[in-house]
Write a structure and sequence with these properties.
By secondary structure, this protein is α/β, with parallel strands linked by helices. It has one domain: NAD(P)-binding Rossmann-like Domain (Rossmann fold), CATH 3.40.50. Helices cover 30% and strands 15% of the residues. The protein has a 7-stranded parallel sheet, sandwiched between helices.
């Protein structure tokens, strides 16, 4: 994998990857509808809307691996989620197939499994349990990734990303479980780009947090060894004494779970 395309490259994770992966590959093509500044050595800039399949095909010319970050990054109305996180995600995988791309790394989210109860440690074999429309869109992305791996032989990695922040630190008690540092994010993506052979894999994007409830044992073969631990922030954060919402505290998806909630938490087992 020497020619890499990053969609959504102007976003927070995109900027971290742009800095952290610079110089590691023959070409890193950065795609977004937002401004990307000036191209550095080894970079190529492409103004690309993932809702435009033809534009995506142009952006993928000569590309070996796509890191797909573009889309709505949080809960939103269905009218917003649908064209970007559903149709746009389909377009990325279909353009990759048409252009002979070998690998797609998809930025999924922990919100694809957010309604699993927090007292349970979960790994990459648990059933999807989205906590929001955004979470549903990430389940869709993982499913279409599986389809394109099985049907078309594209190597696919789905990253269930936890809490990625700028500035680079957790800010509340729940994020002590879910935080992923910038350098660990860069390492994870690098491992998924560079690993010589996998068909389809799902991995949690989380640092080496003492309090983490997510288990990456099944994907140790990738070589991802996170270096950072949120525990260095724990005393400061816990001293604030901020109490988590009663519903949020029960589930991995936290504050996404009580949004618009009208159900019965006792039935969500």
């Amino acid at each position: 994998m020497t020619h890499i395309l990053i969609t959504g490259a102007a976003g927070k994770i995109g900027n971290a990857l742009r800095r952290g992966l610079h110089g590691s590959y023959s070409l890193i093509r950065l795609a977004d509808i937002a401004p990307l500044g000036t191209a550095a050595a080894g970079e190529d800039l492409a103004t690309t809307d993932i809702r435009d399949l033809a534009a995506l095909e142009r952006a993928m010319a000569g590309i070996d691996c796509v890191v797909h970050l573009a889309g709505v990054p949080e809960e939103a109305a269905w009218e917003t989620v649908l064209p970007l996180n559903i149709e746009g995600c389909y377009n990325v995988f279909e353009a990759a197939r048409r252009c002979g791309v070998k690998r797609v790394i998809f930025a999924s989210s922990n919100h694809a499994v957010g309604f699993h109860r927090r007292e349970r440690f979960i790994d990459n074999t648990v059933d999807p349990r989205p906590d929001s429309r955004y979470g549903v869109s990430k389940v869709f992305g993982e499913a279409i990734g599986r389809l394109y791996a099985d049907k078309h032989g594209i190597s696919v990695a789905c990253l269930r990303i936890g809490t990625f922040r700028t500035p680079d630190r957790p800010v509340d008690a729940r994020q002590l479980l879910t935080w992923i540092s910038h350098r660990d994010m860069v390492q994870l993506v690098r491992r998924c780009i560079d690993h010589p052979n996998y068909h389809f894999v799902t991995v949690y994007g989380v640092s080496n947090n003492l309090r983490s409830r997510w288990d990456n044992t099944n994907v140790k073969f990738l070589g991802y060894r996170p270096e950072d631990d949120s525990e260095i922030f724990a005393a400061e954060i816990l001293a604030l004494g901020v109490k988590e919402n009663e519903i949020a505290a029960q589930f991995h998806g936290a504050h996404y779970c009580p949004m618009e909630f009208t159900g019965d938490t006792s039935q969500v087992n």
